[in-house]
Amino acid sequence: MRSINFQKNLIIGMLIVLSGTFSNSVLAQSNKKQKYKVAVCDWMILKRQKLGAFGLAQEIKADGIELDMGGLGNRPTFDSKLGDPVERQKFLDKSKETGVGISSIAMSGFYAQSFAKRDSITLMVRDCVKAMKDMNVKIAFLPLGTGCDLVKNPELRPIVIERLKWAGKQVGKIGGVIAVETSLSATEEIKLLKEIGSKNIKISFNFSNAVENGRDISAELKILGKKHLGQIHASTTDGVWLQNNTHVDMPKIKKTLDEMKWSGWLIVERSRDVTQVHNVKVNYGANVAYLKNIFQN
User: Fold this and answer.
1) Are 117 and 146 spatial neighbours (Cβ–Cβ below 8 Å)?
2) pLDDT tens string 187-197
3) Domain-located, residue 128
4) I need a surface site. Which of 75, 76, 83, 113 has the fewest CB within 10 A?
5) Pairing status of strand 139-143 against strand 36-41
């Protein structure tokens, strides 16, 4: 038995060493076969719409980045480089060079600004959808942040539904999906999706929403179901790494997603160790490694 274990460990060790010799193209091909892929938000690793996001993601062994559209401020649309063909090609080339994919195009400006109240929503959404089309990315991320919290501001629901119905038609033209993050429970999110009535609008599920409201992550995922789940922000608010968070039963979550037969992107947004919150490589490296250990081994 000891001899068998030794041989197994030797083989594993050899595979690890050999894996270091793989080219980025081979790694990219391997990533395509994964049922679950792990990404990081470019704005959270302090590389918002910067080419360096790909190199940093590669260094911490993430499979991809969630690429942001850029800031909003008082502009009529996002402060984005992706509308410039020359600049956009640089991002595509860097993705190919590093083997780091693009999980989704994010409209993170709506964390702070209201999707229900801002003017020129049509321009913003069209710019995002064009970036998706030009970069062959099928998912856009739309957070309904503090200014559009449907739990605290239920009166905004009608206009949010109206705008998402229209947005669903726009992204549907390219066969894409807008994954919306809300503060609602999974049951209420299903109701919202039914009112919107678009197969191109899905949910971006955030672990922290469930944890902060005392809801079980796996139970919420089961309620949402495979067809309503666009992507997952697989992290909580800052405090401890995912592996040290007693509110997150990751093996159970994987079992749930396996049973749902869901596949897609798990994106690390936060879950930083509060004692070293500014150490990007350490925090995101630890969370990426933990997710890959659970979901890809």
Assistant:
1) no
2) 999 999 999 99
3) yes
4) 76
5) unpaired
